[in-house]
Amino acid sequence: MHWRKYALVTWLAVREAASYRLNHILSFVVGAVPLIAMLLLWDKVVGAGEKIAGMGRGEVLTYFIVTRWLYEIAAPTVWWDITSEIREGDLVFHLLRPQNYGLYHFAVILGSKLPYGIIGLGVVAPFALSIGQSWAWPPSALAWLGFGASALLSMVLGYQLTFLLSLSAFWLEETDGVALIADYVIPLAAGAVLPLSLFPKPIAAALEMLPFAKILFFPAQVYLGMVGGKAIAAGLAEQAAWIAALWALNAWIWRMGLRRFRAVGG
Amino acid sequence: MQIKRYLHIWLQWLKISLGRESIFRGNAWVRLLGQALWLGTALVFFETLFLHVPSIGGWKRGQVWLLIAVNELAQQLYRMSVGGGIGRIPNLIWQGKLDGVLTKPISPLFNVAVSRMRPYDAPALLLPLALGWYAMRALNLHPTPAQWLWFGMLLAVGIAARFAITLSAVSLAFWLTRIYALPALLSEMFNLSGYPEGIFRGAARALFTFGVPVLVIANFPTAVLLGWPALPRLAAGALALGGWGALAAAAWRYGLRHYTAVGG
Question: Which of B34, B40, B57 lies at the smallest CB-CB distance from A44?
């Protein structure tokens, strides 16, 4: 019963997002252009039969298509609705409702990303086809299951980071600086720009310890079968641990933020 | 006479922009940090690739550095001059505020485009200039005055092409609601102009020269500094600019005719 209201919020967000189908298609098509160039670039970097950091041409190209799609549905960002509600005082209306503010926005984001993710599959499918036989499929049922579970957890993890970044509005007049970190640093640390295994070993090891790597790099590794049964279980446990840690951190920051919050509307 | 009038209006907008930006100086610092991060990300990306391969599409390390520098210079000049203004167009349309622009006795496009200049971002130009200087020293390049002239022309063509594509895209706001993500996505797309042209062959080269002319923006000016032929690149760039310019002008004019204010 308690979850029904959040499910309803998600459903309403799905309907709203679905009513802007053309916007989603346009966004994804424009977003797909960089993917064409990225694939052409990697086609030149990794020739047929060559390997780079243990990945063949097909695996590298598949990696970028899979992470591009995942990035669209799970990437952490500064969520404008949250920052504006905090800054403009509209948060007070949410505080009066019998709801958890973090869960409410998770339901909204989930609902808005679902149609986007489905349309996105249609947009990235031609790229997968363009690779032809080089396209890498998960090598086992375990890899499929692991990828599905890690993709779901990466969405939740991505949201915890989104919520964390957005709560900065309690303290900051402008969240542009935080948005810059989300736009430039996180994609690099998550493996959207390069597979982390391409970095020099100490840097790669350090990046893999951060939560960002668990949003894109780890699910892509699972998809490509680059990690086995135990590593998949360990990676999923790490994702869950990061979610729990960020959830606790967010709850603390939320309480601290509420102490500073002053609604000025009338 | 007309040019003098527009120059006067441009100067007035520059003064207004200076005033506005001085209130929000912090934003300029944040943008400077953003440019540094972007440049850093591009360098990390290509430097990591060069750990594994000696060249990318025939482009060596120093040449790619120069390309990154020229690309950032072009992007920064665009953002400082017209990028902020043109990015306002979708919101002006949806909020019905374009009326205020249309009532002025000057070109509405000019008026909007120059309304959000970012003079305080000028220090951010130092980053690509320093990187470009370093790359040219590493490559032992000494361009002639003629090469610099070609470079200037091609840079102007590239910035104008970017303006035309963006105007075509934001003009969709006359018919579509909620394309607010489009300017950001276009910006991401234009980051591709920092990829070396050597990776584009055949149909892909034609697509990225004329269809989505990202090669025109930074690769063509860089190629001239590297001593590669300028005239074919200028011809291709002018053709791409002509096509996109015509499309942008048509979309803007047609959109204005269908514009119905909804603001109050």
Answer: B57
> What is the residue extent of each domain of chain B?
2-257
Using a CB-CB cut-off of 8 Å, the residues of chain A touching B40 are: 184
pLDDT digit string, tens, across residues B11-49:
999 999 988 878 777 777 888 888 888 899 999 999 999
B191: which chain A residues are within 8 Å (Cβ-Cβ)? 34
Is A33–B177 a contact, with Cβ atoms under 8 angstroms apart? Answer: no
The span from the CA of A243 to the CA of A158, in Å, is: 9
Kindly list the distances between the CA atom of residue B48 and the CA atoms of A45, A53, A204, B252, in Å, as whole numbers in the listed order.
Answer: 12, 11, 11, 42
Write the single-letter amino acid at A112.
S
Distance CA B220, CA B229 (A): 9
The CA distance from A68 to the nearest CA of chain B, in Å, is 13
Q: Which token pair is B147?
A: 């090469």
Q: What radius of gyration, in Å, describes the C-alpha atoms of chain B?
A: 19
The domain spans of chain A are 4-259
* Per-residue model confidence as pLDDT tens digits over A7-26: 999 999 888 877 776 776 77
- Tell me which chain B residues have a C-beta less than 8 angstroms from the C-beta of A180: 30, 33-34, 37
pLDDT at B262: 58
The answer to whether the CB atoms of B38 and A174 lie below 8 A apart is no
Mean pLDDT for chain A overall: 88
User: How far is residue B211's CA from residue B232's CA, in Å, rounded to a whole number?
Assistant: 17
Contacts of A200 in chain B (CB under 8 A): 51
Whether the pLDDT of residue B264 is over 50: the answer is: no
CA of B30 vs chain A CAs: smallest distance (Å): 6
- Is there a contact between B51 and A188 if contact means CB atoms under 8 Å apart? no
User: Residue A137 carries which DSSP code?
Assistant: P
Query: Which uninterrupted H or E stretch holds A51?
Result: strand A51-52
Query: Over the stretch B67-80, which tens digit does the pLDDT of each residue have?
Result: 999 999 999 999 99
The distance in angstroms from the start CA to the end CA of chain A is: 33
d(CA B215, CA B59): 14
